[in-house]
Every structure is written in C-alpha cells, then in structure tokens.
Amino acid sequence: xEKLRQHIEQITPLTDEExxxxxxxxxxxxxxxxxxxxxEGDEVKHEFLVLQGVYKVxxxxxEGKEHIVQFAQENWWMTDYSGYFKKKPANxxxxxxxxxxxxxxxxxxxxxLSADLHKMEHFFRVKLTNxxxxxxxxxxxxxSGNPQQRxxxxxxxxxxxxxxxxxxxxxxxxxxxxxxxxxxxxxx
Amino acid sequence: xEKLRQHIEQITPLTDEExxxxxxxxxxxxxxxxxxxxxEGDEVKHEFLVLQGVYKVxxxxxEGKEHIVQFAQENWWMTDYSGYFKKKPANxxxxxxxxxxxxxxxxxxxxxLSADLHKMEHFFRVKLTNxxxxxxxxxxxxxSGNPQQRxxxxxxxxxxxxxxxxxxxxxxxxxxxxxxxxxxxxxx
DNA sequence: TTTATGGTGTGATTCAAATCACATTACGAA
DNA sequence: TTCGTAATGTGATTTGAATCACACCATAAA
Lengths: 188, 188
Known about the structure:
Strand content of chain A: 15-25%
InterPro entries (chains A, B): cNMP-bd_dom, cNMP-bd_dom_sf, RmlC-like_jellyroll
Largest interface: A-B, 32 and 32 residues
Oligomer: homodimer
Largest sheet of chain A: 6 strands, antiparallel
Protein name (chains A, B): Cyclic nucleotide-binding domain-containing protein
Structural class of chain A: alpha+beta
Organism (chains A, B): Filimonas zeae
Number of strands of chain A: 6
Domain Cyclic nucleotide-binding (chains A, B): 29-106
C-alpha cells in the first residue's frame, strides 16, 4: 500500500489519517500471466491500479479480430471504463501479460472517496485530465498516421512497452496487421 | 449566464453566492461563421463552453489534409486540450461553422474554481469522465470499423450533427475520404 | 532430447478505399 | 438574375495494406 500512497502523493499530499481512510477502499490482488481480470459480459466491478506487471485491455470485433484499447503497466489505471462508469456489462477483456499485482477500486469507493475528500476528487480529476489528453493524442495518430508513423509515435511514447509486449499485440493496438508491422520495423 | 448555471446544475446544485463567484471566471464571446477561436501556434488561453452554434476542432497534417478531432455544439466543451492543459502552443484550430456564442474559461480560472469549490472540482471531474468514455468509444470505432460502420455509429450518436455540418467534414471526422463517404450514405 | 506452441519474417495475391477527374447541384454575393 | 464558390455524386484508376501461405526460430513443457 505504500506504493498507493506514493502514487497519490505525486498529485496531492496526504495526512496519515487521510491515507488510512483511503486505504480501506482498495483491495490488493495478485495476478498471473494469462489470467483475466475482466471478461466481456461481466459486471465491471473494479477499476485497477497496476502495482506490477503488464496488462492489455481489448475487445473482439464481429470478425473475431482482437483490438487493444489500452496497455497498462506500473502506476497506470485501467478497466473497461465505459462499463465501469455506466454500470453496463463489459464489452472488453482485461488480461495479464506478465505476473504482477493490482489494486482494485469499486465505483462506489471512487465516488465515496471523491465526496469525502476534496483532495481525492482533485486527484481523480488530474488523472482524468491526463488520460483525456492522451486519448485525444491517440485519436490524432489514428486519424492521420500511416502504419509507419503510428509505429514511430508509439516507439517514442512507450519504448518500454516495445520491449515488454509481443509485436503482434502492438499491431493490434495500432490498428495495423501483424505482417505490415513486421515489415515496418525492419525498414527502420 | 443563466445557461451556464443550468449547465452546471445538471451535475450539482449551486447556491446564489456560489454561482455569483463562478460567473466571474467566464467571459462571453459572440462568434461568427468561419471565425477562428484558436489558430495553430497560438497560446491556448481558453477552453470554450458552447452556448450556441457549431464548431470544429481540427488540425492539418503534413500532407495538408484536415482532420477533425472534435465537433462541438450547445453545451459541449472544446479546445485543444493538449495545448491548454500542458500550456503548449496549439497544434489545432477551432473554427466556427454556424454563428453563435461561447463562454471562455482560462486554465487559471478552471483550477481556481476547482480549488475554491469542491462542487466545481466535482463538476469538472464528471465532465471529464464522460469525455473520457466518449473518446475511448471513438477509438474503438476507429480501430475496428470500416467506413460503413463508422458512418452508422456516427449517425446513431449524432443525428443532429449529420444535419448541421457538411458531409465532407463528417468524412474528415471519421477518417474516411469524402468520396467514400458519399458512396456509403447512398447505399443506406 | 524431442515436441509443441507462439512469435516473427517475408513473398505472392487480393481487395477496399484513396485518389484522380469530372459532372451536377445548391447557395450566397454582386 | 447571374456569377462564383462550395458541396456533392459518380466513374475509372491506382495503391497501400490486408490477407493468405509459408518458413524459421525461439521458448517451454514432456
């Protein structure tokens, strides 16, 4: 839980009492490679804060193709946010790619924390702000970039993920076929 | 300004004193068709809340093609959020497509309001939450949808915009060529 | 060690959508 | 009204990336 405190205090300082209170809303969970934290159709009970490991958030389209909406690693938050916030069944899967652990937070917990502590509402707002900007950036790349540019942007932004996850998953994240991606990275 | 109050009170009730305070951070601005609220390279001074009219937020790629990141109409917020939040020069343009008016809010104002009033921090968090989910949804469509599906999703989500903005702009929003879109809507 | 399974490169072929090139229509300004 | 400009439809052609099909190489399990 010390990691949680550090994570929050990057945004806002906390007193010991505050943190003690906050803590009670988080449950720790060990996860192993290939384990699913969420299945399509499930109720989306939690949002996850990654303490360790790598994960993918993805869905399967009607042709059976897998598309990755988000990767997550240490200190990233993840879930099927549409399902989580709207209390609808998941359209997505969350799967572990590398053994690790996560903290689980319910929507109730999130809202309660935000209501109880202005600081926490601030924390979540800042996180969302950053997330929003990142998504808008991603849309930009999807709209105008050819596979080459997409790959370069990704490499620049997440050189670490490039090492940690197989290329075929990166392809599924970039919206490019495995083969095309393979030919690209060669030409670089 | 009454519209602003209603807009905020859809999320959280306000006392008169609170609203009086809030109000001081917003400046109203009339805008005419073809007028730019933001140019690429500008400092991104404001975020805008649309009171009336339609607007597009777009950028121009290195081949000179225009890509629309966001449309906005009544009660939507818009700006180049990356530039706004990171205090970097704009990568985007904001242009008016239909006469109207907007409220302008500086980043300072936004942060001040959030710090002063827990309610306002809440308001912004809720807005960001919805925006985040919408962007994630858009990414989903961009990743898996063919032009047909993209168009259908858009029609379902924004039938009003379909009437209000020219097709070629919708094409630029969907990441599809004008011609392809034209052939599609015919086949429907 | 062998065997299987998943990741990856690379050629050949196909195909969907972009591009190019017009014609047509709608609309606002002079 | 007439002119000019923007929006739109539609054919012909090109092209970039997907798909198909395979070989090769890891790593992990038997």
